[in-house]
Specification:
Layout: H1 10-19, E1 22-26, E2 38-41, H2 49-55, E3 60-68, E4 73-83, E5 86-95, E6 100-105, H3 107-112, E7 119-121, H4 124-134, H5 140-178, H6 186-195, H7 200-220, E8 225-233, E9 236-241, E10 244-248, H8 255-265, E11 272-274, E12 278-280, E13 285-291
Parallel strand pairs: 1-3, 2-4
Antiparallel strand pairs: 3-4, 4-5, 5-6, 6-7, 8-9, 8-13, 9-10, 11-12, 12-13
Helix pairs in contact: 6-7
Length: 293
C-alpha cells in the first residue's frame, strides 16, 4: 500500500476535525474542546485515523477516548463510524503479544463471525477495504428483530417483577385468611377463587376441619348457653362469639372464658369434650361454652 500520512501531531488532528466530519468525545459521551488538550493515540490508531476520515468523508467519525494528566491529555482509544446518526462500525486496537493490531467491528462482520470479536488485522489496506465494503447500517429486518427482542425482554422483566409482587401480595392475603380459620367456610371458598387451584387441597383440608367445628358449634349451642370459638394465635387469643370477634391476651381474657379454656387446655387429645365446658378441637382451636346472659 502507499505510505499513509501518520497522525502524529495536534495540528494535523485539528485539521482533520475542521475539514472532515470528525468529532472528538470522551468515553462518557461528552464532547471535547480540542483547543485545550494534547493528543495521545493507542497504537496504531495514529496510523489509520487520517486515512479513514479523508477517504470516507461521507461517514461521520467520532474519535473516542479518555482524559488524563489533569484534563490536559486526550488518549484516543477507538474510532466509531456513524451514518445519519446510526452507528455502523468501530475501529480499535489490541496488543497480540508480538505487535499491535487493529480490531474492526460492524454488523456484517458479526454476521460472518459468530464469536463477535470482530476482524483482527495488522494491515492498513484490510482496514480500509473493510470500511469501504462492510460499514453500512443494519438491514431493516435486523433492526426490527433487535427492537422486537428488546421489547419482549422489557415486557418479560416487567411481567416477572409484577408477578413476583403479586405472589408476595397473595401470600400476605393467604396468611391473613389462614389466621382466621374460625370465622367461616366462606373464607376458604374465597381462598380458592383468589389463590388458584394449587391451594384447593390445602383449603379443603382446612374446610373439613371447619365443617367439624361448625357441627360441634351447633350441637353445643342451647338457649341457656352460647359457644365461643377460641383460636390461640401468637401468644394471644382470637375469640369469635355472637358474630363478634375480639383479640385478648392472658390478662384481658374474660373470667368465665379464661376458666373454661384453662380446663380444655389440660386435655391431651383432639376433639375431646368436657360436658358443660366445651371441646378441644386441636391444640390451637377450642369451643368454649358460655352461659347466656
Amino acid at each position: 500500500m502507499e505510505q499513509h500520512e501518520i497522525m502524529t501531531n495536534r495540528s494535523l488532528a485539528l485539521q482533520a476535525l475542521k475539514q472532515h466530519n470528525v468529532t472528538f468525545k470522551k468515553v462518557d459521551g461528552a464532547p471535547l474542546d480540542m483547543s485545550t488538550v494534547e493528543l495521545e493515540f493507542y497504537r496504531p490508531l495514529d496510523e489509520i485515523l487520517w486515512p479513514v476520515v479523508t477517504k470516507f468523508s461521507h461517514i461521520d467519525w467520532v474519535v473516542e477516548g479518555g482524559i488524563s494528566r489533569k484534563n490536559t491529555l486526550f488518549s484516543v482509544r477507538s474510532i466509531s463510524a456513524y451514518k445519519e446518526g446510526i452507528h455502523i462500525g468501530n475501529i480499535s486496537t489490541t496488543y497480540t503479544g508480538r505487535t499491535y493490531a487493529f480490531i474492526v467491528k460492524c454488523h456484517a462482520i458479526d454476521e460472518e463471525r459468530t464469536r463477535g470479536n470482530g476482524l483482527r488485522t495488522t494491515k492498513h489496506d484490510v482496514v480500509l477495504s473493510t470500511v469501504k465494503k462492510k460499514f453500512a447500517p443494519k438491514p431493516i429486518n435486523v433492526i426490527l428483530s433487535e427492537v422486537t427482542t428488546k421489547i419482549n425482554r422489557i415486557l418479560s422483566d416487567k411481567h416477572y417483577a409484577q408477578k413476583k409482587k403479586q405472589v408476595d401480595v397473595n401470600q400476605e392475603l393467604l396468611d391473613a385468611v389462614l389466621e382466621r380459620i374460625h370465622e367461616s367456610k366462606d373464607v376458604y371458598e374465597y381462598a380458592v377463587r383468589t389463590f388458584g387451584e394449587q391451594l384447593i387441597q390445602r383449603v379443603c383440608e382446612l374446610k373439613l376441619k371447619m365443617s367439624k367445628l361448625e357441627d360441634l358449634h351447633s350441637a353445643l349451642t342451647t338457649e341457656s348457653s352460647s359457644v365461643a370459638v377460641v383460636l390461640i394465635d401468637r401468644g394471644g387469643y382470637i375469640v369469635s362469639s355472637d358474630k363478634q370477634i375480639a383479640k385478648y391476651n392472658d390478662s384481658t381474657l374474660p373470667g368465665e372464658l379464661r376458666k373454661n379454656l384453662g380446663l380444655l387446655k389440660l386435655l391431651d387429645k383432639d376433639e375431646k369434650v368436657i360436658p358443660d365446658i366445651g371441646v378441644r378441637v386441636n391444640e390451637s382451636v377450642f369451643l368454649v361454652l358460655l352461659e347466656t346472659p
